[in-house]
């Protein structure tokens, strides 16, 4: 529908001639033409979308306002405490697959289990990963999250070989145990759990990637890293956004620091004993196409730090929050860990057998990731016209597979919006029903290569926390879901050391 009544040509020429200027100032005129232009573009856009809707048989939905689409509705919806307001609302209107327009482009959202699985499994065929430019510019083009085709396959399996069960068991577990205990040593009174968890997972990743123990260098790297990550949620225009400018500068600093480490390792070469870390494996190359360039190694290390640090630390602190609010689960978990500790001599590190005897801990971790995973879903782009549920998604469109919408769907998980770790007990005795609907680590060719490593880090952290401390929440702290899942005040807790603490690092 036209927004303005446009005068006929003859009256228009009269207007532009003699009478017009005395009646309207230049500013009013400019404004008038600007609105005219915007409504014309809006009209074109609408017509274009309507035609597409008719021609392509798109999933039902709404494109919202011109240019902005439904972006503002999405952002304001996720600022509430409700975990899935934007999707819930549209699922009830249009069904589990719907069309919207967010962050500058038309996007099809899926809150449907089968569709999500179809999207994940067809990665590299009719879908490819797609991140906003704010993220891709900061990660670098060789980041595993952004690479495609053969290079992605090669790097993904390379990462899997670094973080698989036997490497964790034989090499990584001992450092995870030691660094977690070192961090907990300094805990007293009030602790900002989210900050502490971030510090722990950052130090763990740096150790596993480059063999550095915590020091001034790692502290500086972490500060730059946090600035870099803040840029992910900023407008990717350095001229308009200070946060984004700072993030770009931080990326430069991180790249420079990593380049120095690589140069030092290359220089020492054969003269030093080979380190058992990811960087050593990258410097060796993987036997294919002449190894990796420094630029590739830097982007790769940088993206591994991003992928493995905020994800795991969020689950660490949210697991503690949910346990604090569910005393029965906390008591059962404490029992599981006290039992493990009672079998070990004082200060002895956890081993693989201990890790494998934490069934209820795995239930708590699953339930935390189900209720409040930091990765609520993944964006993809279609590389061909794609048929889904009788609809067609045109080539080049964005698609969002929402894992959280499935995880919080009452038809998939009974009483889905409450924290109930006992629901997972069946899976410990071989039940697969829930696991088939559970995708906290994604799926298909891009499934998280760090899933086992994350689980081990979470188990070790919970073990030492439970066996060394009791705690209470220092204040009420609510969950928020935008731009990332976290608690509003970084979850402060008051900790007290338990009498029977026997866990000093040896
Ligand atoms: C609880 C902790 C974690 C969660 C919930 C998580 C979740 C995910 C998800 C959902 C994806 C798939 C992204 C996509 O399909 O586009 C992913 C990818 C990835 N994750 Fe994790 N992750 C966690 C921890 C880790 C850790 C500790 C590492 C470090 C080794 C890691 C490294 C990666 C990498 C490198 C990718 C990219 C894989 C690719 O694109 O091929 N993640 N993660």
From TrEMBL:
Q: Name one Pfam family in it.
A: p450
Localization per record: Membrane
Location, primary (coarse class):
membrane
Cofactor(s) needed for function: heme
* Organism superkingdom: Eukaryota
Q: Which residues bind heme?
A: 448
Its record classes its membrane topology as: Single-pass membrane protein
Sorted keywords for this record are: Heme, Iron, Membrane, Metal-binding, Monooxygenase, Oxidoreductase, Transmembrane, Transmembrane helix
Sorted alphabetically, the Gene Ontology cellular component annotations on this record are: membrane
Name the SUPFAM superfamilies for this protein.
Cytochrome P450
Similarity section: Belongs to the cytochrome P450 family.
State the protein's name: Cytochrome P450
Q: Which organism is it from?
A: Nothapodytes nimmoniana
């Amino acid at each position: 529908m036209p927004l303005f009544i446009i005068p006929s040509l003859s009256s228009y020429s009269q207007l532009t001639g003699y009478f017009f200027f005395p009646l309207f100032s230049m500013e009013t005129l400019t404004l008038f033409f600007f609105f005219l232009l915007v409504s014309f573009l809006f009209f074109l856009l609408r017509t274009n979308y309507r035609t597409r809707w008719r021609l392509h048989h798109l999933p039902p939905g709404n494109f919202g306002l011109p240019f902005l689409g439904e972006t503002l509705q999405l952002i304001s919806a996720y600022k509430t405490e409700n975990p899935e307001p934007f999707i819930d609302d549209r699922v009830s209107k249009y069904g589990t697959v719907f069309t919207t327009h967010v962050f500058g482009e038309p996007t099809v959202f899926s809150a449907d289990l089968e569709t999500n699985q179809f999207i994940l499994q067809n990665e590299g065929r009719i879908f490819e990963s797609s991140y906003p430019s704010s993220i891709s510019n900061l990660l670098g083009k060789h980041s595993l999250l952004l690479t495609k085709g053969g290079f992605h396959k090669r790097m993904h399996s390379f990462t899997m070989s670094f973080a698989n069960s036997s490497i964790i068991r034989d090499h990584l577990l001992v450092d995870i145990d030691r660094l977690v205990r070192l961090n907990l040593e300094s805990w007293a009174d009030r602790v900002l759990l989210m900050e502490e968890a971030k510090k722990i997972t950052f130090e763990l990743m740096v150790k596993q990637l480059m063999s550095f123990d915590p020091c001034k260098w790692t502290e500086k790297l972490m500060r730059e890293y946090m600035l870099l990550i803040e840029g992910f949620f900023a407008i990717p225009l350095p001229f308009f956004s200070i946060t984004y400018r700072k993030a770009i500068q931080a990326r430069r600093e991180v790249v420079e620091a990593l380049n120095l480490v690589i140069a030092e390792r290359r220089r020492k070469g054969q003269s030093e004993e080979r380190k058992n870390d990811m960087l050593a494996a990258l410097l060796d190359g993987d036997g294919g196409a002449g190894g990796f360039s420094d630029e590739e190694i830097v982007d790769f290390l940088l993206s591994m730090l991003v992928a493995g640090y905020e994800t795991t630390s969020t689950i660490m602190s949210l697991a503690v929050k949910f346990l604090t609010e569910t005393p029965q689960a906390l008591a059962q978990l404490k029992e599981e860990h006290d039992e493990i500790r009672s079998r070990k001599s004082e200060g002895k590190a956890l081993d693989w057998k201990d890790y494998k005897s934490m069934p209820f801990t795995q239930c708590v971790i699953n339930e935390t990731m189900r209720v409040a995973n930091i990765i609520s879903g993944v964006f993809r782009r279609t590389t061909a016209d794609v048929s889904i549920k009788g609809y067609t998604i045109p080539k080049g469109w964005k698609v969002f597979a929402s894992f959280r919408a499935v995880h919080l769907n009452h038809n998939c998980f009974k009483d889905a919006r409450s924290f109930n770790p006992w629901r997972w007990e069946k899976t410990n005795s071989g039940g697969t029903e829930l696991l088939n609907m559970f995708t906290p680590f994604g799926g298909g060719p891009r499934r998280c290569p760090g899933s086992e490593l994350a689980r081990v880090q979470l188990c070790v952290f919970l073990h030492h926390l439970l066996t060394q401390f009791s705690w209470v929440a220092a204040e009420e702290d609510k969950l928020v879901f935008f731009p990332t899942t976290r608690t509003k005040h970084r979850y402060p807790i008051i900790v007290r050391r338990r009498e029977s603490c026997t866990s000093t690092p040896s």
